[in-house]
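Contributing: when you submit paired examples, paste them exactly as shown. First protein:
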Amino acid sequence: MEVSALSSHQEHIIQMLIRKNPSLNEDLLRKAVLFITDAHKGQFRKSGMPYTEHPLEVAKILADLQLDTASVLAGLLHDVVEDTPHTLKELTEMFGEETAFMVDAVTKISAVQKQKNKDAEKAETYRKLVNAMAKDPRVLLIKIADRLHNMRTMRYMKPEKRQSIAQETLDIYVPLTHRFGLYKFKSELEDLSFKYVNPVEYQKIVDALIEKKNTREAYVKSVIGPLQFKLALEELDCTIQGRTKNIYSIYSKMQRRNCSFEEIFDIFAVRIIVNTISDCYLALGYVHNLWAPLQSRFKDYIATPKPNLYQSIHTTVIGPENKMVEVQIRTQDMDMTAEKGFAAHWAYKMETGRSGEELGWLEQMAKLQAEIPDSMDFLNFLKADLKPKGMPVFTPKGDSVELPPGATILDFAFAVHTELGLHCIGAKINNKVFNIDSVVPNGATVQIIKSPSQEPGPEWLDIVKTAKAKQELRRWMRTSFIQQAQNLGKEIWERELRRSHIKASDIPNEQSICKHFNLKNIETFYEKLGQGEMILPELQKFLTSFSKIKENYEPSVLLYSKENSALDPFPLPISQNSSLLIHFAKCCSPIPGEEITGVLVPHQGIEVHNTGCSKLEEIPPEQLIAVTWDGESSRSFETHLSIDTDNRKGITIDVLNELSNANVFLVRMSVASVKYSGRIRLTFKAFRKTQVEKILMNIKRIEGVREVRKQ
């Protein structure tokens, strides 16, 4: 590579990088700038500027974050592999493995393997990026710096391209900056994205801010003035700043509160920066001496830091002119963390091995990307999981977990650890036990109760609200479904062998079974059988043909049907344990003690009906299978009743009293009446047939009840 010496502009950039971070290796920076000058020679950005403008600006952002030489080098070199003929091997030889790894991490998949589907290509790039970030978090900062400069110069792109990139930034990069405490970058990325995603609303707020600028600045002075006087009197060494909140933040407030710009009073915040933590609480007392606080909007992130290391006291007071004013109080170190987030602490974390919750999230994402085979599924999960949760909940050790409002005990368990979620049976909050579907109170300390024997059921997907919990449940169910299908299929197979009177010595070998059904292995055979994909006459045909080749052997295959259900000597036992392949029909709601019939449903398993259910008349006999209850029930079943009554005052209360006396849980109830008659429909949960029969008998005895029907 033969290039001339650095130009005066490039020399200026080098010196600027050194001023921002004096620990940087000047010789390596000089070598890298010469290299990219040659590599990107003849390449220009949409603005018409030489392409090297972009990597140089990215390097300045990284140096400002006080990142090390390897990171700043990666910022300078990050587009070389993607946009020039140079390879990672060359970068490794010239600048080291550390820098080459980070360059590779931020290189798009399309640069190394062409994808036909652009969405899949983007999703694969994010999978690669997340995996690399988990290994080296500095990759995240390089990617954020890259996106930030691209957003700053996006006005030169076509409108549709600008909008697409801006929306992606709001969906992925803004939440990432929030999660890692990069609030300075977060605000700028939000406003730049908002400008292109919703230019009309953006300009409205900009115009309103300009119009009210003088009034707003005068009001900020009316707040800061008394504060400065008070804190000076108390001899508290501090700095006081006033700032207007960013445009996107104001817009979000307008949307949440459904109000206009004129109705938003807290569009600015006052920040007090002190020397020590004790000074923070002194300053808080002085602020509250001046103005009355709103208790509902007080947050102490010093005592309980955010997972991304953010610490500060936030208090909202009723300031001059009875307007709400947000005051933030923090130390100088906390302010640096608030500005630079994770970047302010990454070196300390790398040296001590203390990963923190934000790195734990990265490790979890890296694990999930390996476990979620579909790239688009992973990208959708990443977007959902990055959305701000907003509600702090605490573990017994004091660790903070953020959950969305309405999240359940089960969501919290999965947020702490997947295994804890899979075996969760409830939780203790203030020594009171709550069920898995209970909503977690804001700010509560939650102790999860688990049981090794507990396993998820399909209904859990309706309980959880968070993307992580849903994804983990679906992943577990996919794996468990196959295993359960194989176990159930093996049970059905062994049952058919017994019903066919085939001796153990005559059982067909696995090879002949797989050959007959054109399957790869015996596990697939059991799986298809358990999932209801293989109807029983197929087994009969196979067993009959198999038995014919045996001398002196006469098969006796008895196919199950409605007519001979009572004669079947080998019904399949239906366990009360949670199963993904045993479903109880809602049309007849069978409960333990009632005679039941199974229906093989393709891709679902067995659906259990009450033997008297009218729906069975529509089912072909070859789909029916004999089933029976297996042991005592530990699970409640829904029972539906329809009650015809006289239109008597108080009859509904009498029915409810009978349910209460029977100690059953009422799920729902509806009442309709005309002039002389009424109908009550109700659903309750019971454990056994005798319990339901007793309830029916007692309801029939109520004065005015004409008829009771179980549906």
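Second protein:
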Amino acid sequence: MSDISLTFPHILLDNVRKFPASKIAMREKEYGIWQSYSWQDCLEQVRDLALGLAALGFKKEDKMAIIGDNRPHLYWGLAACQCLGGVPVPLYQDAIHKELHYIVDHSECKFALAEDQEQTDKLMHLKEEIPGIEYIIYNDPRGLRNYKHDWLIAYTDVQEMGRKFGQENPDYFMNAVNGVKPDDMSLIAYTSGTTGNPKGVMITHRMIADCSRGFLEWDNLDETENIMAYLPMAWIGDHMFSYGQALTAGFTINCPESTTTTFHDQREIGPTHIFAPPRIWENILTQIMIKIEDSAWIKQKAFHYFMKVANRVEKKRIVNEPVPFADRILYAIGRILIYGPLLDNLGMSKVKVAYTAGEAIGPEIFEFYRSLGINLKQLYGMTESCAYVSMQKDGDIDSESVGPPAPGVEIKISDSGEVMYKSPGNFIGYYKNPEGTVETMENGWLLSGDAGYITERGHLKIIDRAKDVSKLNDGTMFAPKYIENKLKFSPYIKECVAHGMSQDFVAVFIDIDFGAVANWAERRQIGFTSYTDLAQKPEIYDLIYNEILRVNKSLSQDEHLKNSQIKRFLLLHKELNPDDSEITRTRKVRRGFIAEKYETLINALYEGKDNVDVEAKVTYEDGRTTTIKANLKIRDVEIY
């Protein structure tokens, strides 16, 4: 493999030469019909757009913001930018104005590419405040007919400019592509910003290509794979799987019609390869449990009976012990009656391997999916490592670890218990933030910020964020994320925040899953008017109380954590929301912010109060705000 083939413009060109015209590179569902594109189609789309950008003055190392749902045109925009030696900067499509302003301004984007009117409007507001933005390009013209600005241009018009520019400059495209080197920057991916402003992670072509090949070889994935591209393009996980791996292997990317039709569209495609963060797996589990509760009692009985069988079987398989003959027979029956139909309904019947990463997944959730027969594996990585540090391998699965080091990766644990690693994906540094880069790197080792250790099997086990792991007053280890993940196995709990640092006991805030709990309440004819009203119903407190008892029973069986059982809880009056800065766009809890914002609630939990008044500001995506007032009940929980 030549060094130049480590750049994504050359990988695209290689795919056109390597694969026949009948090989589908991308699909997009539009108006209920799947539109297919070959690698040759993709190259033509990318070349025309790249030349159009060049005609508008786009130069090597220029930055281009990209915002919208997963669309072939946005991935082509990313590739077109790279073909000119530019650097794409993907943005979260649900980010509010303040977040977008910081990233676009900080990264010095001169160009911006938007999916539709909604995203174009956001960028137009930014242009009024950031004069460095020269052009905004939109893909979907609906609703934009009356928008008249010289700097606002339709995607197709830029491509038409590119075709004309290409006729006048026939060698320009290949000269630009050949000028891109493997160690040139290929992407700036901004972190989720759990402790402050997000950081711009600078990543090269070589890093993405090397890590993509490492992933593919680990699980024997090739050009025959089908994947769904539905995760935010701004997340490194989507970039690695829906772009890096897809181009490197040459497999097919499928873009759903909309975020709301993803799983319906997935059933039509039948992907072989799935990647999702824990929150997606949690949401799927919640929907499964809602449907089971709505089914006839005999179906409920059958489901719960055969899931117990599946769980027993999976626990044996994980530790490589023989499965008793009776359970093998029952599991085969369960596959016909329960597991097979359920997998088919989820569009996962063809899945060869599924991954979860982004943060820790609860062992119960992980084992649930493996019990169904899904080859679910945990990955561990960060934006700063191209999501490539450790991963589980077939025949060596542990529900509470993230597997051994990936090929080419070294891992060590610092004296303080922090995970450190050297990976082929280790970033260049943070854009315009040399101080942050120095803080994160130590003699070539990247400091993860996560606390963990290497197990006897050689697996990496992550406990929590190093800064979040602490102790209760009696010396018991307090790992909030571990407790929260156990709670989120419940279909009725969407999010939670555990407290306990330097306290006598653990207490939690809980966000109910409104859809699941509302469904539960309606079946029992419990009336409610809003999220806040429902969350404060005595019956809902009883429901969540029993879910916490389940977690306490599990914690009581762990010698190190039995004293960190939950003693008090309250149900929040609103969902934790990234627009209110309480969680990140990837749904990671911003603990410092929550501790400050809800200090009164935390104090009430530890002062023995039975209720507490709260008044909180809620921010909408368009910047409007409102205030919610409520009186929240506080309940004690039994300890095992």
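If you have annotations for the second protein, write them as plain sentences, like these:
The chain has 21 helices and 28 strands.
The first helix runs from residue 8 to 18.
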